[in-house]
Write a structure and sequence with these properties.
With 58 residues, this protein is mainly alpha-helical. The chain has a domain of 31 residues. It is built from two helices and no strands. The relative contact order is 0.07.
Length: 58
């Protein structure tokens, strides 16, 4: 089976990152929030879109 080198690299980086936190999802999430806050970038949120209702379909 063919393996995509980009996917393999991404998975390895994710594995290394998770191992820094002993694979604890709560600690990883805290780190992500801390990094997000430290970045100083503005968070953008858009309102949820409503589906368009087609009147010609019954």
């Amino acid at each position: 089976m063919w393996k995509d080198p980009i996917v393999m690299e991404t998975r390895e980086l994710r594995k290394q990152y998770a191992s820094k936190f002993n694979n604890d999802a709560d600690l990883i999430f805290e780190d992500i929030l801390k990094r997000q806050k430290a970045s100083g970038r503005k968070r953008v949120a858009f309102p949820a879109r409503r589906p368009k209702v087609r009147k010609d379909v019954a």
